[in-house]
Write a structure and sequence with these properties.
This protein is an alpha/beta fold. The chain has ten helices and 13 strands. The strands form three sheets. It has an eight-stranded parallel beta barrel, surrounded by four helices. It starts with 47 loop residues before the first strand and ends in a 5-residue tail after the last helix.
Length: 417
């Protein structure tokens, strides 16, 4: 996510990724002789089969239509016969039991150390705004059930010179936030918020201006500092975009992974980001999934190497509008879940967000319920954003004392789904 100085307006200039919902109309000649109460089409396994506003099939071709909440029911594996659900009222019903799926990670981005960094990978230090309320915010969120926080920071802030030592002053401030996160018992994601760039040059792809070795040097120093912390998660890079060669980018990511593991952080989660702002919708089709599947640990395994994806809910997937227009289930997370199962991999939605309005409550609750119901392939979700953002910011998840924003209280705590 881009933060342009401290106007606190999210304006990341990402390419529009128009996300229109896919409509599936399945007809059958045999259906014409069924009774009037029979649904013509049936939802596939892991497809939606009910919920407020749902106009598709309410029966399952395989498995059981299982109630999650008022907004979402899903066809899940089971031995019962096809089950229909109501879509007319909030009290969506099903004869199946409520699912017990639980996500490993839910939380919020605690922004501020990334302020002043734009999509060219240029960071203006005067605009960095350390989140002084971050510790209190994280304590609040943990007390309500969250357990993971992403702590974005600009590369130039923590390492002013390529291959140089880490800035002692900035590292001290940033580490205070990391330690406050760890003190809550939560997982803490160290996220380098530079869009696969340093001052406009793409890592490993701009005539040697910034090399894979430069990225490896940064991560080697960071990983060495936190190697003994099991709840540190390493976010290799925020939102790569317009990367000409995705396979070359995978080599850059491999350099970071090798540096992290070689520094002694041998078992922690490492997040692998793809192209197109690591779009969840495009992660497979743009070649990111295939390219990043080649990234391995030192021993050749893929243990705790997790795909890093982002997805917003507004009309152009930019995260710049208050209203939401999609729940991302049909066109993004259902096909992504299918792919992940086919290759035995997992993904983590580390940025998602919407305005504190009714349309976003409907769509975000539906999206997060789907992610929760598919926790075998999705580690979790993190909202954008709190930290140094004002409560008036269009996507603000910053609480006022102990009072949460509407979207957070409605959809971001998984015990509400």
């Amino acid at each position: 996510m881009v933060n342009v100085i401290i106007t606190l307006v999210r304006c990341n200039f990402r390419h529009s990724q128009l996300s229109s919902r896919m409509k599936y109309i399945i007809t059958s000649a045999a259906a014409l002789v069924w009774t009037a109460t029979t649904v013509v089409a049936q939802s596939a396994l892991y497809g939606q089969c009910g919920g407020i506003g749902w106009t598709g099939s309410t029966t399952c071709s395989s498995g059981v239509c299982t109630y999650s909440n008022a907004y979402y029911s899903q066809c899940l594996p089971g031995t019962a016969t096809t089950t229909a659900t109501s879509t007319a009222t909030a009290a969506t019903t099903s004869s199946a039991a409520t699912p017990t799926a639980t996500l490993s990670h839910t939380g919020v981005n605690i922004a501020g150390f990334d302020f002043g960094c734009d999509t060219t990978g240029t960071c203006t230090s005067a605009d960095m705004d350390p989140p002084t309320a971050g510790a209190t915010q994280m304590q609040h969120f943990v007390s309500n059930g969250m357990n993971t926080f992403r702590l974005p920071i600009g590369w130039q802030y923590i390492q002013p010179t390529l291959n140089g030592t880490l800035s002692s002053s900035v590292l001290s401030q940033y580490d205070s936030l990391v330690q406050a996160c760890l003190a809550t018992g939560a997982w803490c994601i160290i996220d380098i918020h530079n869009y696969a760039r340093w001052n406009g040059n793409i890592i490993g792809q701009s005539s040697g201006a910034v090399t894979n070795g430069n990225l490896a040097n940064l991560w080697s120093q960071i990983a060495a500092k936190y190697a003994s912390q099991s709840k540190i998660i390493f976010g290799v890079m925020n939102e790569p975009h317009d990367v000409p060669d995705i396979n070359a980018w995978a080599v850059s990511v491999q350099a970071a992974v090798t540096a992290i593991r070689s520094a002694g952080a041998t078992s922690q989660i490492i997040l692998l980001p793809g192209n197109n702002y690591t779009s969840a919708q495009l992660f497979v089709s743009n070649g990111s999934a295939a390219a990043l599947s080649t990234v391995k640990n030192l021993d050749g395994s893929i243990t705790n190497l997790i795909f890093d994806v982002h997805k917003y809910l507004d009309s152009d997937n930019s995260g710049t509008h208050s209203e939401c227009t999609t729940d991302n289930v049909a066109d993004t997370f259902t096909p992504l879940a299918t792919y992940l199962r086919s290759v035995s991999r997992q993904a983590f939605l580390t940025e998602t967000g919407g305005g504190n309005v009714a349309s976003c409550v409907t769509d975000m609750c539906s999206q997060n319920t789907y992610i929760k119901a598919n926790s075998d392939v999705f580690l979790g979700y993190l909202g954008w954003a709190a930290g140094s953002f004002l409560t008036s910011y269009i996507l603000s998840e910053t609480p006022t004392g102990s009072v949460d924003q509407l979207l957070v209280s409605s959809c971001m705590y998984q015990n509400k789904l």
